[in-house]
Amino acid sequence: MPRPTRAIVDLDKLHRNYRRAAALADPGKAIAVVKANGYGHGIEAVATSLASVAPRFAVAILEEALALRAVVPRTPVLVMQGVYEPDEWLACSQKNFIPAVHSPEQLDSLRAARLQGPVTVWIKVNTGMNRLGFPSGDVPRVLSALEAIPGVAVEALMTHFAQADEPDHPRTGDQLKVMADLRSAFPEKSQSVANSAAHYTTRAGENEWTRPGIMLYGSGPLVRSTGATLGLEAVMTLESALIAVRDLQPGDAVGYGADWCADRPTRMGIVAIGYGDGYPRAAPSGTPVAVGGRRTRLIGRVSMDMLAVDLGELPDAKPGDRVELWGSTVSVDEVAQASGTIGYELLTRVTSRVPRVLLSASA
């Protein structure tokens, strides 16, 4: 009998989330961000499913773009970290990749490249994130330098928000002002500024391209929110099953470190999942979980292959019962908050030993 641990990926929910993003982006167009293995859902499955509706895809690195080309042969792909070696520009020109240029070193490598066809690029602008990108004052010089290279066309200017997940934060307004000034200076160039959070906190459709990522997968991009509160559906359900049930007496400890002890007679279940599968080891006692569709809580430390749950209010629970670690009953955002992290990390950490099971009524 196979181990019951699996990640169910509902591609119909993915489509509905994308349509939600596209509506918020209108009249701009929403680029589906599928980096980090489709945020843990499987880049090939996600891209194949969205190819009929997404005008473009976005990834972080060239290797991800090449993986996309194996299943999506024609859709343009934005490579948000760009490329670094002169010979990598050739792949961009041959495979319809659109690399971001964010550093003088990349500009130099493009000058040194031997292109065998045209390549379209975007310029990354640092408007306050202070991670990647050219200062806004350098954009005229960089734009002129790029367009002086034969075969190179600059399509758009892009930036990334630092605090768009905090509604009405003044830093977002400051970043928008920088991009508005650049639009006035270069009205012929498209712009892309809106990440998932900005679909809810800015007028995202005022730019030609938005870049929804985490919202496509149903996790909430705003602080103190869940996907469900924003009209999104959980695409991944991480589930396993009870493999043992036992009764604890007052004073009985559970798991490594014995940092949880029963203070009364307690019915406990053991679930076949742990941090070796990507479930967070930092999840403390009290983290929500659902057994047979009913919410309960973790008790004790998460082990590599197992964790324990409180069955005190679930007297009928038995070995073999389905356990949802996150999904539609327990939000991944709730688990992330309890664990001191964000839904992005949890979804992308689900390991390869957890099989992905694809669902789609339209398939």
Automatic annotation (TrEMBL):
Residue ranges of every copy of the Alanine racemase C-terminal domain listed in the record: 235-359
SMART domains: Ala_racemase_C
Cofactor(s) needed by this chain: pyridoxal 5'-phosphate
PTM-bearing positions, type N6-(pyridoxal phosphate)lysine: K35
GO MF terms held by the record: alanine racemase activity; pyridoxal phosphate binding
Keywords: Isomerase, Pyridoxal phosphate
Any one biological process term the GO annotation gives: D-alanine biosynthetic process
Catalytic function, reaction form: L-alanine = D-alanine
Keyword Lipid biosynthesis set for record: no
SUPFAM superfamilies: Alanine racemase C-terminal domain-like (SSF50621), PLP-binding barrel (SSF51419)
Positions bound to substrate: R131, M304
Pfam families: Ala_racemase_C, Ala_racemase_N
Gene Ontology CC: one annotated term: cytosol
InterPro entries on file: Ala_racemase, Ala_racemase/Decarboxylase_C, Ala_racemase_C, Ala_racemase_N, Ala_racemase_pyridoxalP-BS, PLP-binding_barrel
Pathway this chain belongs to: Amino-acid biosynthesis; D-alanine biosynthesis; D-alanine from L-alanine: step 1/1
Catalytic residue list: K35, Y256
EC number: 5.1.1.1
HAMAP family cross-referenced by the UniProt entry: Ala_racemase
Role according to the record: Catalyzes the interconversion of L-alanine and D-alanine. May also act on other amino acids.
Protein name as annotated: Alanine racemase
Species for this entry: Hydrocarboniclastica marina
Gene of this entry: alr
